[in-house]
Design brief:
The chain has one helix and no strands. The protein has one helix at about 5-30. The N and C termini lie far apart (about 45 Å).
């Protein structure tokens, strides 16, 4: 899989990615409503 540090960074990036997607969805819903 690679060094642990790289894996940790990938996990953090995935968390940030998912968080921003949720925020965009909420923004879209509030704009549509």
């Amino acid at each position: 899989m690679g060094p642990p540090r790289f894996r940790c960074a990938t996990l953090i990036l995935l968390l940030v990615y998912a968080f921003s997607i949720n925020n965009i969805k909420r923004l879209g819903l509030s704009i549509c409503n």
